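By convention, each integer encodes one residue's backbone shape. The lines below illustrate.
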Amino acid sequence: MGHMPTAVVLLSGGLDSYTTAAVARRDGFAIAALTFRYGQRHRLEIDAARRVAQALGVTRHLVLDLDLSAMGGSSLTSPDLAVPRDRPLGEPGIPSTYVPARNTIFLSVALGWAEVLGAHDIFIGVNAVDYSGYPDCRPEFIRAFGSLARVATRLGVEGAPLMVHAPLISLSKAEIIRLGLELGLDYSLTLSCYDPSPAGVPCGRCDSCRLRAAGFAAAGVLDPALHAHPH
């Protein structure tokens, strides 16, 4: 068997990034997982990312401190801004849980690590169907970042383009869940909530919890995390 190419995979501990990492593994990549402790209020997602990384058998897992909370501007990082609850799904506008430029920052760091590792592939779990209206989850963003990667790096300039893969970008939440179940994933390991209790119990009412619940309902599957945390 030949040497497996390495891919840097952004891993948050949520459902989408776990599924994305599994797709990278299915496609023959050794996974270098990158998780950020960025000042998010749901720090329990770091524990979830560690569980997921272990379950996937990742080659290496880098948990990086990159505190964006000092900038403010998002209810995910500012304790004085409330996370919206019971917001109508699909409501227009960009919600306060949007972290300014987060995916651009994360992908830039992933790009740097990919260069160091000699990896030509980066995977990110963004999704433009059942998502919360974030500008940095759209295909236009992924395409533009791919163009940037080609001109921003030594690898790119030397003719070995870096590919940014967003395998979930056009899937519904239900389709993502079905794909993950086909790949044998255990979604009880994941945490999606933006504002869980200190014990890790999901609130059930933030955009992320509600998108997750709607996705499992549409997939016709019970969310295994509900066994771990019955409401």
Notes: The helical segments are 15-26, 44-56, 102-117, 139-152, 154-157, 173-182, 207-219, 225-228.
